[in-house]
């Protein structure tokens, strides 16, 4: 169907592509892309990118971010996972946990949550911090050393 040259070109175009969600746009659902994405509107769902996610100062995200690199200037309510670097601009307002290798925070940014600095080997599988080690009688799930364990 495609020769190798066309296939390589197609993959390169996907990775180098840029997507923009405009200021007056609202999306409900998950967005997965190989290329860069810039949000200026509202998104309710998970954002995943193999390259970079930019949340503009007029943007609002209710959901999680999973990417290599992110730059946030707007409002995010959810978990942020960056395998490389996260930039929080002075207008950023984060309500959720951050997991990243490198973090740059401008003066004025607001962050409410926990932050765990990960190493490159941890970037694929990140352990969540332990909040408690309790188990209810009806629940067959318990937290042990940052990992969820199903019992019974």
Automatic annotation (TrEMBL):
Composition bias (Basic and acidic residues) maps to 135-152
Q: Which Pfam families match?
A: Bactofilin
Query: What InterPro entries would the database entry show?
Result: BacA/B
Tell me the domain of life.
Bacteria
Spell out the residue ranges making up region: Disordered.
132-152
Family label: Belongs to the bactofilin family.
Q: What is this protein called?
A: Polymer-forming cytoskeletal protein
